[in-house]
Amino acid sequence: xxxxxxxxxxxxxxxxxxxxxxxxxxxxxxxxxxxxxxxxxxxxxxxxxxxxxxxxxxxxxxxxxxxxxxxxxxxxxxxxxxxxxxxxxxxxxxxxxxxxxxxxxxxxxxxxxxxxxxxxxxxxxxxxxxxxxxxxxxxxxxxxxxxxxxxxxxxxxxxxxxxxxxxxxxxxxxxxxxxxxxxxxxxxxxxxxxxxxxxxxxxxxxxxxxxxxxxxxxxxxxxxxxxxxxxxxxxxxxxxxxxxxxxxxxxxxxxxxxxxxxxxxxxxxxxxxxxxxxxxxxxxxxxxxxxxxxxxxxxxxxxxxxxxxxxxxxxxxxxxxxxxxxxxxxxxxxxxxxxxxxxxxxxxxxxxxxxxxxxxxxxxxxxxxxxxxxxxxxxxxxxxxxxxxxxxxxxxxxxxxxxxxxxxxxxxxx
Amino acid sequence: xxxxxxxxxxxxxxxxxxxxxxxxxxxxxxxxxxxxxxxxxxxxxxxxxxxxxxxxxxxxxxxxxxxxxxxxxxxxxxxxxxxxxxxxxxxxxxxxxxxxxxxxxxxxxxxxxxxxxxxxxxxxxxxxxxxxxxxxxxxxxxxxxxxxxxxxxxxxxxxx
Lengths: 414, 160
Known about the structure:
The complex is a heterodimer of chains A (414) and B (160).
Chain A (H helix, E strand, L loop, with lengths): L14 H8 L5 E5 L11 E7 L2 E8 L7 H5 L8 H5 L6 H16 L5 H29 L3 H22 L8 E2 L2 E2 L7 H23 L3 H7 L7 H6 L5 H5 L6 H4 L20 H29 L16 H6 L1 H13 L6 E8 L4 E8 L7 E5 L1 H6 L2 H4 L8 H8 L3 H5 L1
Antiparallel strand pairs in A: 1-2, 2-3, 4-5, 6-7, 7-8
Helix pairs in contact in A: 4-5, 5-6, 5-12, 5-17, 6-7, 7-12
Chain B lengths: L6 H9 L4 E5 L6 E4 L4 H10 L5 E9 L7 E9 L4 E9 L5 E3 L8 H12 L2 E3 L36
Parallel strand pairs in B: 2-5, 6-7
Antiparallel strand pairs in B: 1-2, 3-4, 4-5
């Protein structure tokens, strides 16, 4: 008897195709956020899912919008500095520096050398704190508690240094238009050297548990990939751009403050995936620590000197004179009540913050109140391509990708 | 018109002189004020011919009392030349509209939504012009100078 497969009249040509059709799958809409335990940052994702794959991703930002620009445009130039602290809570000093440098550009002020070294030093400590938060929190959200604690312990050291420098840990408010609040104390340099050694040790521990960890590597490699060309189309900057292989860093391309005199390298990645972003951030921390050490050396060699520009338009007269002399008392009264007058004009100044290019575009009409304070937020611009990056990816890839974009709600939503 | 030593301004004045109203380089920032209707031509030229490949920033300024009232401000950066240029386009209050740059620069998408949200300037040709930082029921555009800072917004119930 010849063997013949039984024939069914209704049997379709392709079994597999029919199997899928019979499942009646339909796309599911998932609301993730605005407050989700696996994201650090208040943002809502409206995700259209096909099984576990992302079909469409709408990122809804704005939950932390506090009207930064409106507030800045209704106070004096000085009153905007504390608001800039609250843009990026991890690296408040960098936002301070960006804003003050932009105002100084309008005023045509050059700050004293000691002030510039202090600014670079405090800014680089902030950058380390920012990258530590990014890498530490990413581990936590991928369910690894230990490296998070190493990262946060190191960040505590950074914030202890901040506290020693300016009295505040997070919202430092250290930079002033035309200077800094005050010089560092004499016991700051030895403490800083000690803490830098401790941070380096913690970074080694961090590296030991994470960098070649199978689970971590599998979750990060080839996820959240963005190409060089797309980075440029989306105006992505910072570690995200550098991990895609473009070595652009405002500190090198348009050096401000004293970055030209410093010896540091710009790490770049190859593929532009999350793992490259992780490696770039870790290397940037090492480079920043190198910069802090160079600044400490240089500050020691410079010796005591003025940290504020000698310009009565922006800096107050010395306290001793204010209390004993009429002219200086009047000058201080006018400075405090009216604020500095900034000449009419417009200017854009960009610095390299921990997330990328942080720019301030300021317009003045010559009065004490700004016409326009625009902050070009790297978090906001870098978040825009995320929807395109994750199309077709698994839902689980969203978590590490969002972590390594390091969207900071305060800066993104302003 | 002077090009102030900026290659972007020099090429722009040479190629599209009728689109450029005036130029300046205050504080070292090369700036061109262009006709709003020609903004796409200007940007396409700068991107394709002069290598200004990154639209770094896009914002608007409200000069209340001046005509035209608004100015949309673009900051371009060239990764190849390591140079920046600022392009400004005046926008009248009545129309409050300017062509969108989303087809030229992907970064324009969110930044134009932000300007629409906070200034109420419409970007003609934008594929998805929704509010981005504020919610749909928000009344008015808060960065306009005639929007009082203390103004209260009506309470909005839960939405599905």
